[in-house]
Amino acid sequence: MSYIIDTNTDSSKIIHLNTADADTYLQSGVTTYCSFNLDTPIEIDEQHSALVSLNSAIIPYSMYNIRSGVNNEIAYRFINDNSPEIIPIPEGNYTITTLATTITGILNATSSLSGTYTMSFNRTTMKYTLSSSVTEIYLDFFISNKSIHIEMGYGPEDRSNAITSNGVISPNVCDVNGSIHSLFIRTNLTSKSSIDSQTKSFSTILGKIPIDNNFGSVLFFNPRDNTQKILLDTHLINIITIRITDEFNRIVNLNGLHMNLSILVDIVNKKDFVRKENRRIKEKYLQSVIDNQNKFIEKRGRPRKVGRPKKT
Description:
Blueprint: E1 3-4, E2 13-18, E3 24-25, E4 33-43, E5 48-60, E6 73-78, E7 84-88, H1 96-109, E8 117-122, E9 127-132, E10 137-140, H2 149-152, E11 159-162, E12 168-169, E13 182-187, E14 195-196, E15 201-202, E16 205-210, E17 218-221, E18 230-231, E19 236-245, E20 260-270, H3 276-300
Antiparallel strand pairs: 1-20, 2-20, 3-4, 4-19, 5-17, 5-18, 5-20, 6-7, 6-10, 8-9, 9-12, 10-11, 13-16, 13-19, 14-15
């Protein structure tokens, strides 16, 4: 459906939402998945359509880069019997240095391990080196779907060599923020105008906000010249559901804090809109013209050919 922006429409509407004012929180303990019931719904006439866009957003950078149930497990196996073991890491916001300190502290405090573990980070290669005074384990990230593999510089199914005193270097560059690089604003208003590479299909994404500040700051989103407008399928906006996720469609937890966002609704004319009643009138009129022409031809008979003399 194409559209034209015209002055013969209702004025644009802007909806300011604060998650602290949500009518319903749709996941316990999370402020980033909620719904709002509008006391004054926005109605769009049949001859018009609505375009929605993310006008602005203010989000506190309080989500953790190591999250429980997402990427907070160290997975390894014992060399002697190949038995697996998974140890959780407390969720929180870690730097490349504090993460290494936390991992070695957990390994050294684990009663089933007898070695002394150290972990260093090379700022030139951006890779970790994990060492142990006793050769007893090797890393196996395949056994956990919540492993810390990206942050440690491994793939999701990688297995390291045995951890020795010489150390094992991670094969990939370590990305301590590998589990969340952007925030995605998803709503119930959008379904057919945004495609993402994860699903390779239409999604409910209204906007994407890059994380370009440090932890503890505030993320500001205020697009200027490059605003994506999404055509709505509905003619009534009375309930708005908001869900904030990472790039893997996992809900982001602001850990008790709230966010603000503004949604712009532009009312536009449908370019090819024809009222149903006008269409019926037009079709009826055209049919009557055709019928009259047929009656006129039958009454006069076949038209004579040019140049043929008329019979007297």
